[in-house]
Amino acid sequence: STDCNIQIPKPNSTLLQRLVKGKPADK
Prior knowledge:
The chain is an all-alpha fold. 52% of the residues lie in helices and 0% in strands. It has helices at 2-5, 10-19.
């Protein structure tokens, strides 16, 4: 997925996870 391709900081990962519910934003 494109989400895994984009490397984001840990703090932003939490915000992204909220936007992308059910997707592995943590990785």
